[in-house]
Amino acid sequence: MSISRxxxxxxxxxxxxxxxxxxxIDIFCGSRETYHEIDASGVINATGIADLYGANSNLVRIFHxxxxxxxxxxxxxxxxxxxxxxxxxHSGQYFVRLLDLTLPxxxx
Length: 108
Fold this sequence. Notes:
The chain is α+β, with helices and mostly antiparallel strands. It has one domain (4-101). The protein is 17% helix and 25% strand. It has helices at 32-41, 46-53; strands spanning 11-17, 22-29, 61-65, 70-76. The protein has a 4-stranded antiparallel beta sheet with strand order 1-2-4-3. This is DUF4387 domain-containing protein.
């Protein structure tokens, strides 16, 4: 079976609040090999994340925690936590959009 989606790799992805104005998404890679595969694919970048979440790419932050095989993404929430238009107050479902990211060269 060919792996084509980020969600098919050996990863655990979660999202959460990083204060009332920011969202953080953590991608826990199950191995160093998976970490490097995802990092080298280039799919986790500021422009792509901005497009996916409607954020300003200049404000998207991506942190590489290589010792833990973790990629961490932070970006401003579209609305502050608790705003009348806020649909996910705890930011718990933001990670779902990342599951379908296709890794280049891994298309089924």
